[in-house]
Amino acid sequence: MTIETGAAAAVDYENWYSEGNATFGDRLAGAREALGMTQKDLAGRIGVRLKTLQQWEEDQKEPRANRLQMLAGMLNVSLMWLLTGEGAGVAPPMGEDARSAEAEGLMVELREMRATMGALAEQMGRVEARLRLSMAREAA
């Protein structure tokens, strides 16, 4: 879908995040923003410094393979999409007039649910670690 605005200006929403239109850093920032995360939030969740994440988003540096996997999982996009813009990713940004108030409210609700799920997953991991430690002590 191509949208015309002004004098012959066109935005190709179907290929917004393709290799020809966006960089790795653009896709990383877009996926992070789609989840309503700040750079600081994402950096903390994947265990890197804020400056490192900023350099990735500005295409000054590239993450290692293990971080790429973590990023794709954390951002709920495919690794291929993150690298090339092809595959399961996020929808391109739309103009504010293209979103209805109801759709915007639903997006906010989904972001809140995703954040809650992430927090619960982290809490489950901590409880599991404590349980394993407790079981190991009992076995010894």
Quick overview:
GO terms for molecular function: DNA binding. With 140 residues, the protein is mainly alpha-helical. It is built from 6 helices and 2 strands.
How big is the Rg?
A: 19 Å
Tally of strands: 2
User: Considering DSSP H and I runs of 4 or more, what fraction of the residues is helical?
Assistant: 55-70%
Mean pLDDT across every amino acid position: 75
Order of helices and strands: EEHHHHHH
Number of structural domains: 2
Text of the CATH class of the largest domain: Mainly Alpha
Care to describe what's here?
- Residues 1-14 have low confidence and may be disordered.
- By secondary structure, the protein is mainly α.
- Helix content is 59%, strand content 6%.
- Helix 2 packs across helix 3.
- The protein is globular and about 55 Å long.
- It contains six helices and two strands.
- The protein folds into two domains: 1-90, 434 Repressor (Amino-terminal Domain), CATH 1.10.260.40; 99-140.
- It has a two-stranded antiparallel ribbon with strand order 1-2.
- The chain has helices at 24-34, 39-46, 50-57, 65-75, 79-84, 101-139, and strands at 2-5, 9-12.
